[in-house]
Amino acid sequence: MQVLIHQARVCDKRSGFHDKVVDILIEDGIIKDIAASLNVKADQVIDSEGLCVSPGWVDIIADYNEPGYEHKETIATGLKAAAAGGFTHVLLAPNTKPAISTKSVVEFVQQKAKGNAVSLHPLGAVSQDVEGKNLAEMLDMHSHGAVAFTDGWKPVQNAQLMLKALEYVKAFDGTIIQIPADASLSAGGLMHESFISTKLGMPGIPALAETILLHRDIELLRYTGSRLHVTGISTATGVDMIRAAKAEGLNITCSVTPYHLVLNDEALETYSSMYKVMPPLRSEADRLALVAGVLDGTIDAITSHHRPQEWDAKTKEFEYASDGMNIQEVAFNIALQAINPDRLTAALAAGRDIFGLGTTHIDAGAVADITLFTTAGKWELENMQSAARNNPFIGKELNGKVIGIINNRHIHLNK
After folding, report:
1. CA-to-CA distance for 194 and 333, rounded, in angstroms?
2. Mean pLDDT of the chain, nearest integer
3. How far apart are CA 337 and CA 333, in angstroms?
């Protein structure tokens, strides 16, 4: 089957066609030809106003809740959300029941996602059953397809366990992913500790909850010489710490969520639990530092932290509401409010290099692992592919649109 992408701007600095408007011919999952204009009769033509193409985007951590919590999301609905959001690869959080802490659950996840346009990559748990006590069988999981290791929404608090994990993954050049949140300093907190939290009468989570754990993990990284990816960075001080660690030559990368780039703690003045996330929305100064960190490359990637919740998990008193946003489908549109398209697409695709998912580029002979999008136009978020609706952007006008993805010889186009 031949597919012609007609007159699309290439967003790929590794491509010889970067920033050029071209026709792209794809045949049997391979980019067959690229030129300013191609005179071919393809089986399918993809054309749209302001069409752009980039290497397929990677969501570094998302939660599909299966097995165990299918009432929130399933792998099937999660993959539909990913495709709608322009992601060709998703790294799946291990916080399921049972947790992704054995090779059998790794294989279960892979089997459920088989044959999909989106490639699903399990993240193995650092600790058995994500309990933060004993190391899981990481080598066994790695051998069966786990691409990195994390305890996901339950960051590793035990320093000795974290040290062992960082040392263990060196045997196979693996990576540990950590959300920088100290549980003891975050305990009981509902939002960022600030004047606003005092005004609203809500217990605060200090920036120190991020920087204390981040400092510890950087020290452990320096000691072990291992590889660490920090995801969900939320403070200006945290960005500075990552920048300094990189300058030192430590093998550290980091990612930020779209909502931390466009929202601050003032959103909590509505008392809407839709804005209850972990790490919490921080100050405007922190938000601006995060944007600057993405633009200067200190922050390598943008990832959704997609956390679907059922209706009654969010529709209750703020104190008891669950954390997280169902955000994967509009991660691009949200981040586009703060980041220019070229840097944004690079940040959305950065996970493939960080986690060794295979390089691809928009050139003849390359595998067609592509995201199609436009920055033109405005639209209102209404219908969603995800099973959950805990998204504060529903009913709001968004810029740009994901047209679709091409991956694994599949074509998914949004309606």
Report:
1. 28
2. 97
3. 7
Residues of the chain with CATH 3.20.20.140: 56-354
For residue 368, how far is the Cα from the chain centroid?
21
Tokens coding 229? 């990816």
pLDDT at 415 over 90: no
DSSP letters spanning 278-322: SSPP--HHHHHHHHHHHHTTSS-EE---B----HHHHSS-GGGSP
Work out whether strand 176-178 and strand 191-192 pair parallel, antiparallel, or are unpaired: unpaired
Residue 359 pLDDT class (50, 70, 90 cuts): confident
Q: 3-class DSSP state for residue 26?
A: strand
Q: What is the dihedral of CA 45, 49, 55, 60, to 10 degrees?
A: -120
Q: What is each CA distance from 351 to 55, 99, 129, 177, 389, in whole angstroms?
A: 11, 23, 25, 12, 26
**Is pLDDT above 90 for 115?**
yes
Give span(s): CATH 2.30.40.10, the chain.
2-52+363-413
> Above pLDDT 90, what percent of the chain?
98
Name the architecture of domain 56-354. Answer: Alpha-Beta Barrel (3.20)
385-410 pLDDT, tens digit per residue, is 999 999 999 999 999 999 999 999 99
Residue 238 structure tokens: 């945290």
Looking at domain 2-52+363-413, its CATH architecture is Roll (2.30)
Q: What is the pLDDT of residue 103?
A: 97
Quote the crossing angle between the two packed helices 284-295 and 236-248, to the nearest 10°.
30
From 195, 184, 127, select the one nearest 161 (Cα to Cα): 127
- Cα-based angle 355, 70, 60 (whole degrees, multiple of 5): 15
Give the helix ranges, DSSP H, for 21-133: 75-84, 103-113
Structure tokens that stand for 86 in this block: 């322009």
Q: Is-cis flag, bond preceding 67, omega within 30?
A: yes
Mean pLDDT of the 258-277 span: 97
Q: What is the mean pLDDT of residues 159-179?
A: 98
Structure tokens at 304: 């959704």
pTM of the full structure: 0.97
User: Which residue, among 316, 374, 317, 324, has the nearest Cα to 344 in the 3D structure?
Assistant: 374
Residues 51 and 8: beta-carbon distance below 8 Å: yes
